[in-house]
Inverse folding.
């Protein structure tokens, strides 16, 4: 519900993306009267906005003694952002020789940003020392960094100490969190807290795309995926808002598809693509991972088809040519890829090297298909022919997938394996067992190619829905349906006898509390539901031709909107008593709608 409110606010407050830039330009114009032009050239502007969020509830206090913590409920009152003389409507934290008050707040939904703390007129006009712990789960906000539980300050400070002024306003922190614990550190001290707000830092752009159907669980999943990627759309497109606040090219692909589906064009995508391109001269691999350079090509193909920006594609020509020529040297005479460097698909598949080999063979094939299309658009017949020949040669070599759902999905999408066979023998085996937050998007897409839409919907309900059942408001870096067994919720203190999911699970580089609970690569169901259930598929670059081919599976109706460079396509499909689908479609005049 909070997600819907945010979407509505952004839609009406920011009806055009140019507003933010207009504000930035006005700011520079105002500064020009007091700053020299040479000084202004060295300044940076931030296109994001700041929203101040009041806590929704008090999760925990370390005491009910009103001589230690008094009137904590005042922190749930909407604030004004200003300190004021007097001691009305404040929360008092009062320490003595032995007792130090502590309180845990819930802001209701994961967000990216920090805190604004406004102090009152305490009895002594001296700074007061506190400890702040931010958490994506209740248990993370309650933990210590002990070197064993995974908790850390990597990428962003989430556990730190600070002094608060008397009668002042302090803004601190820059992380991903929902829960905040505050401890008073000084003895024999009274701290008056007038307001504590989360400083929600975000793009301030409208959620143009939408999805609704008769299954509220799927609606919540679509919205949660949209919100997850939105939080990671900062100045660049991040991997996660707590940890991995970096641009990882391969991880970007599911995010970019969600951006296309929900927001349409946004500069965060080309900025991020160009950032890693400029940091990675050929023959180096992007992010040190060979497959991530492949994803750069695949993303550019998708970005061009959705937005049709030929000028931007032309800017990529030199690098694209160098990269593809380098990739061609990594295919042997049998048609087998020979990628070096870090051979990686996603973390859960890392223990199955044979499955990784299958996935990389498929990714190389898809890359050459995309290269052929891009060079054809760029009117480079020679490079297009090279890519076509390479794809043909790659398809002659069909490695074993070794029951890897990641590998089998990519092989099906690359036409290295029959999609129905891949679905029957691998993807549907064990239900959501061995699904992946990152590669789940490709597993779902391969299931759609096999015609198993109901099976894919059930995977979405069970796998991504499982995170919601544990209290998630964003989708996680990793998840396993086995974690649901005897699990406590992440928005509660874990009851005795229940498993602390955040403290107990995670693998590889994301063990325990280091595990990110807001990772953009997990947003796959959002774009998948719009593409395959709502049925929107871009056929010609710039959305000039769009196919609307709904697949409702076990649903009775679905409706939604889809952003294009020419405006929104509005769609509704209803299943009739004879099983046929009645559709209502309203598209801009510039777009041709086809249904075959």
């Amino acid at each position: 519900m909070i997600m819907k409110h945010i979407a509505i606010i952004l839609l009406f407050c920011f009806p055009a993306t140019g507003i933010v830039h207009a504000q930035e330009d006005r700011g520079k114009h105002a500064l020009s009267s007091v700053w020299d032009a040479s000084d202004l050239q060295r300044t940076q502007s931030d296109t994001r906005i700041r929203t101040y969020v009041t806590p929704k509830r008090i999760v925990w206090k370390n005491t009910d003694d009103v001589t230690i913590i008094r009137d904590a409920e005042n922190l749930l009152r909407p604030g004004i952002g200003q300190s004021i003389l007097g001691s009305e409507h404040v929360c008092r934290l009062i320490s003595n020789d032995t007792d130090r008050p502590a309180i845990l707040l819930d802001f209701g939904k994961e967000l990216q940003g920090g805190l604004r703390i406004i102090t009152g007129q305490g009895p002594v006009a001296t700074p007061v020392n506190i400890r702040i712990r931010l958490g994506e789960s209740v248990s993370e906000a309650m933990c210590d960094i002990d070197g064993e539980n995974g908790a850390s300050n990597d990428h962003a400070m989430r556990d730190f100490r600070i002094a608060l002024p008397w009668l002042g306003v302090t803004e601190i922190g820059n992380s991903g969190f929902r829960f905040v614990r505050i401890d008073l550190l000084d003895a024999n001290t009274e701290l008056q807290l007038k307001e504590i707000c989360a400083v929600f830092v975000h793009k301030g752009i409208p959620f143009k795309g939408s999805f609704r159907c008769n299954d509220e669980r799927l609606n919540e999943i679509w919205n949660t995926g949209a919100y997850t990627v939105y939080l990671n759309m900062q100045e660049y497109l991040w991997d996660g808002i707590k940890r991995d606040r970096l641009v990882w090219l391969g991880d970007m692909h599911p995010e970019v598809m969600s951006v296309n589906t929900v927001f349409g064009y946004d500069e965060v995508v080309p900025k991020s693509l160009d950032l890693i391109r400029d940091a990675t001269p050929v023959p180096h691999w992007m992010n040190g991972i060979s497959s991530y350079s492949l994803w750069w090509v695949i993303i550019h193909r998708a970005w061009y088809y959705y937005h049709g920006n030929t000028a931007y594609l032309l800017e990529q020509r030199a690098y694209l040519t160098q990269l593809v020529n380098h990739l061609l040297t990594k295919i042997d005479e049998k048609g087998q890829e020979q990628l070096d460097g870090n051979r990686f698909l996603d973390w859960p598949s890392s223990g199955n090297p044979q499955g990784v080999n299958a996935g990389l063979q498929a990714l190389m094939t898809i890359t050459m298909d995309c290269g052929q299309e891009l060079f054809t658009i760029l009117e480079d017949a020679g490079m297009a022919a090279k890519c076509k020949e390479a794809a043909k040669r790659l398809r002659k070599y069909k490695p074993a997938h070794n029951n890897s759902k990641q590998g089998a999905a990519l092989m099906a999408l690359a036409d290295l394996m029959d999609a129905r066979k891949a679905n029957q023998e691998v993807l549907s085996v064990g239900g959501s067992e061995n699904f992946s937050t990152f590669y789940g998007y490709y597993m779902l897409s391969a299931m759609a190619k096999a015609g198993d839409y109901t099976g894919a919907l059930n995977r979405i309900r069970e796998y991504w829905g499982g995170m919601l059942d544990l209290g998630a408001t964003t989708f996680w870096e990793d998840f396993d349906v086995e974690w649901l067994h005897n699990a406590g919720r992440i928005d509660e203190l874990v009851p005795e006898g229940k498993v602390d999911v955040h403290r107990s699970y995670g693998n590889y580089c994301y063990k325990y509390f280091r595990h990110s609970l807001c990772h953009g690569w997990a947003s796959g169901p959002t774009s998948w539901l719009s593409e395959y259930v709502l049925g929107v598929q871009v056929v010609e670059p710039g959305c000039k031709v769009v196919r609307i081919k709904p697949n409702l599976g076990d649903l009775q109706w679905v409706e939604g909107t889809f952003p294009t460079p020419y405006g929104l396509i509005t769609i509704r499909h209803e299943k009739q008593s004879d099983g046929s689908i009645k559709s209502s479609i309203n598209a801009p005049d510039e777009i041709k709608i086809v249904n075959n």
